[in-house]
Amino acid sequence: MKHIVGVADMKTSNRPEDSILTYSLGSCIGLIIYDPVAKAGGMLHYMLPDSSIDKDKAKTKPLMFADTGIPMLFKETYTLGAKKTRLKVFIAGGAQILDQKGFFNIGKRNYMALKKMMFRNNVLINQQIVGGQVNRTVRLEIATGDIYLKTSGGPEEKI
Amino acid sequence: MTAIQILLKEIKNLKPIPAVVHQLLNVVNKPDSSMSDIAKIIQYDPAITASVLRTCNAAYFGLKHPAESIKDAVNLLGIDQIIDLVLLKSGAKVLSGKHKGYGLQEGAMWKFSVSSAIIAKQIAKELELGQENAIFTAALLKDIGKTILDRFILNSFHKISDLVTHENLSFMEAEKKIIGVDHAELGGMIAKIWKFSPKMVKIIRNHHLKDIAQAKDKDVAVVYLADCICMMLGMGGNADGLAYRFHEDAMNLLGISADDITKIIVSFTCQMQEVEDLLHVV
User: Fold this and answer.
1) For B235, which DSSP code?
2) Is A30 left (phi over 0), alpha (psi -120 to 50) or beta?
3) Subunit contact B231:A97, Cβ cutoff 8 A
C-alpha cells in the first residue's frame, strides 16, 4: 500500500508491501529513517525548524517543526522494532529561493536544526540531498529500504 | 509569426474573466456599499449564483438549512466568505487543469493560486492595507501568464533550465531571454485585456518584483511575499522550483521579519486541511 505523507505529517511502517511517499518538498525537509534488519522505517515532512515560535500550535501540530516532529518519528519507528544503532538516515529538501539569506533562509535553518539534533543524539546521516532551488519528491520502499528521489522537472531516480 | 505574436493571439482567445468580478471589486472597495448591493451584483450572474449556492450547500460548510438565494448565503456564511467564493469560482476555470511545461499536475496550479490568495489576504488584513479583495484576486490570478506560456516552456525547457543552472538566472529571467516575454509580464497583459484596474495589473505584472522599486507599493509586496511563502511550502513550482529571486528589501519595506514569515506559515499550515477541502468544493 502507498502511504502519502502530507505537510506537517509522518508515516511509519514495517509491512513489506508498503511504500511511503511525500510530494513536493520546497524548503521543508523530508526525513527518512530505516532499519534494514527490522525492515521498518518512516518518513517525516516538517516545514519549520523550531516550535518555540508558537508553543500552542506545536501542541496541536507537532509534526510541523523539527524539534517536536523528529523525536516522534524516531519513537514511533522504534515501536515497530527498529533500533537506533541500525538506522539508516536520509534527508531531502531544504531548498531556498535565490538570494534567500540568513534568518530568512528557512530551508537552510530547517536543515541545520536537523543536523544539530542528529549530532547531539549521535545519529549519523547516511545521505542527504538538500538545498538548491528545486522541489523534491521522495519515496521509501519498506521491503528493501530503497529510496527514490524525483527532482523538479526530472525523472524519478533510485538513490 | 513571432512567439510574442502567437502569445498575444492566444491571450485574445482566452476565456474572459466573468464581468461580476469587476463589478464586485468596484463595489466592495466603496465604503458606503451595503451587503444588499453586493448580493444584487452576484445575483445578476445566474451561472455564478447557482454555482456559489451549490458550493455553500456542500457538506463542507455544514449548513443546517440550505441557502436558497445569495442573500441567504450571505446571512449564513458572512459577506467575506461569499465574496471569496465568487472570486474563487471566477478563477477556477482559467487556472484548473494540467500545466505540462511547468511540470504541474492536474490541480497543482489551482491549489497554489488559492493558497497564495488566502495568504496574501491574511497578510493584507494584518497590515491593514484595505483593498483586501483586490489583493486576494490579484494573488489568485498572478500566474495566469503561466497558463499561456506553458506550451512554450515545454518546447524550450532545456534551454531555460540551462540558463537557470549554469548562469544563475531566475526561471523568469530565463523565460524572458529564451521566449522574449516572462509569465509575469504576460499576466499583466492579460489582466489589462480583461480590463482589471491599473492596481491589479501592476500587482500581477510585478508579483516577482523584477523591479524592486515596485515593492514600495505594499499591495505588490504582499502578493510577492505570499508567492514566496507558497514556493517555500513546495507549492506551484515544479519545473521552475524555487528559482525566483528573494528580496529582503521587500520584507523590510513591509516591516515583516523572518519570525513573522514563520508565524504566517504556522497559521496557514493549521488551516491547510480547510483549504484542501475548499479546493474540492469550489
Assistant:
1) -
2) beta
3) yes
Task: Mention the CATH class of domain A2-158.
Answer: alpha beta
- DSSP character at residue B59: G
ipTM for the predicted complex comes to 0.95
Q: Give pLDDT tens digits for A105-145.
A: 999 999 999 999 999 999 999 999 999 999 999 999 999 99
∠ Cα A139 A140 A142 (to 5°): 150
Catalytic site residues of A? Answer: 28
| Cβ within 8 Å, pair A152-B240 | yes
The chain B residue lying nearest A30, using CA atoms, is: B234
B31 CB neighbour count, 10 Å cutoff: 5
Residues 56-115 of chain A with CB under 8 A from chain B are 57, 60-61, 64, 95-104, 106-107
Instruction: Please name the fold of domain B3-17+96-281.
Output: Hypothetical protein af1432 (1.10.3210)
User: Would you call B244 and A98 a contact, using CB atoms and an 8 Å cutoff?
Assistant: yes
Q: For chain A, say whether B263 makes contact (Cβ under 8 Å).
A: yes
CB contact under 8 A, B241 and A133: yes
Q: What is the pTM of this model?
A: 0.93
Output the 3-class SS for chain A: CEEECCCCEEEEECCCCCEEEEEEECCCEEEEEEECCCCEEEEEEECECCHHHCHHHHHHCHHHEHHHHHHHHHHHHHCCCCCHHHCEEEEEECCCCECCCHHHCHHHHHHHHHHHHHHHCCCCCCEEEECCCCCEEEEEECCCCCEEEEECCCCEEEC
